[in-house]
Amino acid sequence: MNLYYRDIEIGARYTTPAHTITAEDIADFCRLTRDHHPLHTDAAFAKAAGFPTIIAHGLYGLALMEGLKTELRHYETSSIASLGWNNVRFVKPILAGDTVHVEMEFIAKRESSSRPAGVITEAVRLLDADGALLIDAEHISLIRMAPS
């Protein structure tokens, strides 16, 4: 499904496929970002800090949210740019071994004031397999009006 501005319906909700986060995923993010804090690399350190195992970076969770949304294929040819994330809250830690998915809802749309495109806002939530909220955020995107 490829959505253009005219196709966006406020209140429409979508759920992504699930993904299980591994210690290797977290290690890969450590390598990519150069953030090797022991909460993300050392299980004993993480346990001493009150977590059952290593935790994923909050920014890994946010990036994963975008990747999981991409699997819905909503914007294959209609996406122009991400305009940013608002009201990001890291509600609960993401643990190695968690299986997560994204629930998203279109909450606002308007025509762009600078070009022939639309600005859309999605409420985006990362949840674990039990439905517990891990990350809550809003994502703003610029998308094409429609093919000519």
UniProtKB/TrEMBL annotation:
Source organism superkingdom: Bacteria
InterPro entries the UniProt entry points to: HotDog_dom_sf, MaoC-like_dom, MCH/BMMD
Coiled-coil positions: none
Domain annotation MaoC-like: ranges: 10-115
One Pfam short name: MaoC_dehydratas
Family matches, as PANTHER family: BETA-METHYLMALYL-COA DEHYDRATASE, MONOAMINE OXIDASE-RELATED
Protein name: MaoC family dehydratase N-terminal domain-containing protein
